[in-house]
From TrEMBL, chain A:
PANTHER family: INNER MEMBRANE TRANSPORT PERMEASE YADH-RELATED (PTHR43332), TRANSPORT PERMEASE PROTEIN (PTHR43332:SF1). The keyword Transmembrane applies. It is found in: Cell inner membrane; Membrane. Residues 19-248 form the ABC transmembrane type-2 domain. One of its GO terms (cellular component) is ATP-binding cassette (ABC) transporter complex. GO terms for molecular function: ABC-type transporter activity. It comes from Devosia geojensis. It is a multi-pass membrane protein. This is Transport permease protein.
UniProtKB/TrEMBL annotation, chain B:
Keywords: ATP-binding, Nucleotide-binding, Transport. PANTHER family: ABC TRANSPORTER ATP-BINDING PROTEIN. It comes from Devosia geojensis. This is Multidrug ABC transporter ATP-binding protein. Signal peptide: none annotated. Belongs to the ABC transporter superfamily.
Amino acid sequence: MNFEAVKAIYKFEMARTFRTSMQSIVSPVISTSLYFVVFGAAIGSRITEIEGVSYGAFIVPGLIMLMVLQQSVSNGSFGIYFPKFLGTIYELLSAPVSSFEIVVGYVGAAATKSLILGVLVLLTAGFFVPLRIDHPVWMLIFLVLTAITFSLVGFIIGVWAKGMEQLQTVPLLIITPLTFLGGTFYSLNVLPPLWQTISLFNPVVYLISGFRWSFYGIADVNVGISLAMTLAFLAICLAIVAWIFRTGYRLKA
Amino acid sequence: MQQPIISISNLSKTYASGFTALKSVDLEVMRGEILALLGPNGAGKTTLISIVTGIVNATTGTVTVDGHDIVKDYRAARSLIGLVPQELTTDAFETVWATVTHSRGLFGLKPDPAHIEKVLKDLALWDKKDNKILELSGGMKRRVMIAKALSHEPRILFLDEPTAGVDVELRKEMWALVRALRALGVTIILTTHYIAEAEEMADRIGIIDKGELRLVENKDELMRKLGSKQLRLELQEPIEVVPTGLDGHKLELSGDGTTLTYTYDAHGARTGISALLADLSRVGIRFKDLQTHQSSLEDIFVNLVRDGK
């Protein structure tokens, strides 16, 4: 195991994050917090409670997930796309590092950044809405698993993308709708039965449901199923990444 | 010098586009030598380097670096190698210090600020260490790339067109650097299409054309073997044809009839010069000047590549 290389990649990526901290930390926290202001303080009081939880508080787990998902995908994709785009990837390919170490470095850094953001947003939410966390350990587990899984998704997109456009449209066209339709703002129970069934094909539903359960003990799907689906999704991403490195797909001629 | 540090056998590469960049190349690079790979653009030089350094997968063939297979034992093989690619590809927003330190880490070595400092000083980059790379000139960026390659103390250094687009001064500095590295026992493989560079630097020269390694020779031997000398005679009065009395000498007459060129092997037992001069005076041709010319690597190269067409 080339620990120095993992450390080097991780530090390099984290330095990039902190160098651009306005863009990569401050702005996502502010834009997510706007939801709390609008839905928590302004409109939230006019919406009925959901299963005993005020609407403003109900959407907090979903919004944190929304941001962690988006940030993980964007961090994970930019981290590997940039060297590809600049050509500096030659160094990574010629270095004595295994694919596993490369992934740990890049995905680890991307996930770390999302986690920092997730915690910052959680703290910010506390100012606007009454928060309660019933299962803090499970909350952390879901947060970490989600950050890692979607940083992997980002990594895959970053390897696959041939241009900036692809890099940005996939998150916008796929990830954002999946999150909005994944129960960030509503409980699946309010949907007609057909849409409830369709929603179950959306992997984000399981993440948000499990995550919300760790806050308030309420869930759309059983928490065990949530965890299993999250792990399954992680396994699928890992398999794709393994395939990318075995074949050299879009990395090596 | 006699022990190969890199052994390449039956190496070929066909890209997904169907383009065959290398055709069954065999090559041994000796420990501690400077090998120059010479060839026109698109000959396969960069592909060869890219395969050895792990950037491109080979279609067939094997490569070992100091006994380590580059695929099965890639860690050991790659640890020994530093690569300076042809394109100026650097980060933009990182500082010189950060990017060079990063490279050392990638190669699995513990941080060593003293070594990085030495490398940056050797490359006249020390006063730029805290500058962002995008603030540097092209020549400095190239030096940063060399610094990155040297950051992990490689035993083998690949320089792909190190002096392309580099001014004369920097080129001389690079040559000095390459010599200094060789003095430390580093094996150096450089590609170039500046023949003067190969002639100046290399111990051995390989010529690649259309994906085939046409020859690999000790530079001096190559020059001796293929190098012929020419004797040029400027005539006092132009002549229209070479007189029949001089048929045996295979002379070439210039278009304007004022110069006769005689090509001979400088290392042959008999150059034939005295016989030629005697014959010239016998047929009454007088000349006002004579000069000899040693064919350069450039002539040899052009001949080889032209013959291949």
